[in-house]
Amino acid sequence: MALYENISAQIQEIEILESMFPAENELYWHNKTLYLNAKQFLLDGPPTLDNQIGVNLKFLCFEINFNVIVKIENNEIEKSKDKTYFLKLNVTFPSLYPKEQYPEVFLISNDLPRNKQTALSLSMNNFIVSLDLGSMMILEIVLWLQNNAHKYYVDLSSPQCLKAKISESKSEQFMCLYMHHIYNKEKRKNICYWAEELLLTGFLLPGKPGVVYVEGAAYDIEEYFERLRKLSWKKMTCKLKDVCEKRKFNEFQELSFGSNSSKNYHNDMGKFFTFLKDNNIGYLFKCLFGVES
């Protein structure tokens, strides 16, 4: 019953968020199928004693993921000139949110330099853990950001902020990682979320083998690598890291090059090589696998 009550509370909160953010690009999904399955789960009614264990096992790994775009608007920004900025929140509802778990929330702003974004994220996380379990936390987080985030956007045109942003843009790197395999859903989610959080672009190729390519500020590349290293891997090797003179990608994406002849999560390497070549990094294929395509 606890799981049913949590999923019910999640759906109620999402419906309120959808009414607050009605435009298509204001609230959008990583995988809307999970949300629709959750609604069907509620329509089926609370699990009976006969099927409760099976239903609980099915949904304990159940996580709804979505993005919310929050408008930050305040006359204090940029010396009392009207200015509007936008924050993106990556939100994950664990299966036992909100009664027993907190939501996972990552904040992304293309306008803030890294130090200000880190400070805002820390303040937001401190606010989250101050909330009472059982409440509609994303609603409260959005309201908190609308009332407080503008403080971090003040003086973005100051010499210090401009210098920080110029420094970040100049010291960029790319890094290419080879994994024996990448299957785990949680790892794949973290690989993508952390890249977005740190403003890195590139791609994840899940399956066997697995490949992660990222480009961005050198400091953030190091932070990203340290986070990945703490996960459990059969094999993870940094094949190449170098100065990135110009980014090859505009976003971070998960790729899929499944082979029709394989049922073991192997990728079609021919399609992968074509993708690399189309993005002017075809040389990475030999670096990764030691052979020409």
Automatic annotation (TrEMBL):
Name of a matching Pfam family: RWD
Segments forming domain RWD: 12-152
Record CDD domains: RWD_RWDD2, RWDD2_C
SUPFAM superfamilies linked: UBC-like (SSF54495)
InterPro entries named among the record's database cross-references: Phi-like, Prp3_C, RWD_dom, RWDD2A-B_C, UBQ-conjugating_enzyme/RWD
SMART domains named in the record: RWD
Domain of life: Eukaryota
Name the record gives this protein: RWD domain-containing protein 2B
Originating species: Hydra vulgaris (Hydra)
Protein encoded by which gene: RWDD2B
